[in-house]
Amino acid sequence: MFILPPFKSLQKQIAASTKADVKQALVASHAGIDGLAALLSPRAEEMLPQLAARSAEITAARFGRTIQLYAPVYVSSFCTNKCAYCGFSAENKIERRVLSLDEAEAEMDILHRRGFNHILLVAGEAPAKVGVDYLAELARRTRDRFAAITIEVQPLSTADYATLFKAGITGVAVYQETYDPIIYKQVHLSGKKADYDYRLKSPARVAEAGMREVGIGTLMGLANWRAEGLALGLHLAWLRKHFWRTNFTVSFPRMRPAEGDFHPLEETSEKQLSQLLFALRIFDHDVGLVLSTREEERYRNGMIGLGPTRYSAGSCTAPGGYTEPDSALEQFSVGDHRSLPEVCDAIRSKGHDPVHKDWDAVFQAGQPII
Amino acid sequence: MNITVNGEPKETSPNNSILNLLNELEINAQTVVVECDNTIIKQEEYATTILQDGAVLELIRFVGGG
Amino acid sequence: MLEIAGKTFRSRLFGGTGKFASAKVMKEALMASGSEMITVALRRVDLNDPEDDIMANLDRDHFWFLPNTSGARDAEEAIRLANLARAVGNTNWLKLEVTPDPRTLLPDPIETLRATELLVKDGFVVLPYMNADPILALKLQDVGAAAVMPLGSPIGTNQGVLTKFQVKIIIDQARVPVVVDAGLGAPSHAAAAMEMGADAVLVNTAIAVAGDPVRMARAFAAAVDAGRAAFESGLGRQGPEASASSPETGLDFLR
Q: What's the pTM value of the predicted model, to 2 decimals?
């Protein structure tokens, strides 16, 4: 299994990087893990334009001038975990809601009519409200309409992931949130999510079950972002070595205002987020990099072509929020409020093609092709 | 009685063991593997394995190769 | 140090024992090469020359024998040879070669994969010789190959690493060691493979048929060391100057 070196040692490795190390990482055909450490270091900050140029060059070569688009559908705000930073945290006194299968399908249909082909189903971690049967049934009902249906819910067993794959789920996002075990313990107060090791092993189970795509990520604002970046790189490299059939994506959502009174433990600026993104692109040429609507319009427009490959658009983070737009039950408030056509126009105006699909869930093994 | 060794017909005395045959052929038993009627014979069984009339033997060893 | 199936090797140059003018020259050249792993083939004993024994010339405490299945045309033939090699050599290590086309001696990917899976289950440490196909390398790794041995160019062509793009992908992706085999006709070819990050190279013909095999063996050893050192030191990217030294990428939008 994947074993992460002590978090402090990651910070030390990064801090020891020299300007020469950064330059070497920029000219090497593959930066390697030492190169990633250098690119994440303070020494690399003054070379941010060079990082951006190299990242843009690799992204164009590997992904072409395209941006993939998706939208989240929040199906439940029930959660059994107490997480200090999350609006859905179990102890928050909020009105909670789980969508019926019909309601969830209606939300997906709205997004389908708006032109979305990739849906991310999101739920708080409450298996009794949204479990394997629920997700499998929703996938079976909707798989013929969507290119990709991915999920961000509680971690599951390999067998459950395999069941969902057969039902039509194409990918799973399961973020570590923070790779620093000490901070992890501080912010994950109770519930299944409090088990750091179980969470860390989850992406491998997803891949083992045959899912086409696995998303890993960290929540920016919890621990030292540079070390998180190196940990992400190490985790990604390990996953690639062991699951070569799987496509991987990385997300680094920055903390947004949410229910509760949690304030970020570490501030991450746009420049730093950009440095992290460029560094990971230079480290792994083929990884999908996700930039969600947590970031503002200005930033998302500016980053087109520089490294990110996947944007969410027109997002609502409350269960039922597309059907009833005035819902107040959101997990967090977004930073980019544009509709899908508006985001597509921005992508096109930067010389890129908004891509809605690169696969069809209906082709997936276990489903007869009609 | 008649046997075949590496594709060549040979005569040998009845009740001869593999070890005796190798000695007759001046082959160091430590350096070869003997396949008798498509079965590999273990080295420690060379002395006790008695050849049958019509047996087909392959005597194999390492040679130069890349 | 190079590690394959739990065994470590200081030298990253694997030697072959074929095509030498004499057993004496072979031994001297292999000693000069510094190789610790050498390949051997299996053949019928020549009943007219029963003393011709490679084992008598090479100290097995010094050289780790890697029997090959040369001549096998399908998985069944390779498995038969593997079992014979295990019996004669007292080793479960195997360089698996399945080459149905006698003209090119190119390896059969389907039979090689099938034989690897069966031999691994039977307890062999299998190092399959393969075309430089990255997906095949991963599938061989998945069924338990201890290393993969992609070819640089077809056997005996002395063309060097013509498959460099595929070999580079294999090196980047594989969990098991990658040994570039076949077609390395000059020390510079071996150095090139090592600079790309190959874990080792296997050289036979180029040393065996050189005018002075002993000196050529030393030249290959030096080239392998140089290539490895260059790889470990971190080479610059080659190719057109696509990334200008003064980038125009505007980051003015950042706050």
A: 0.80
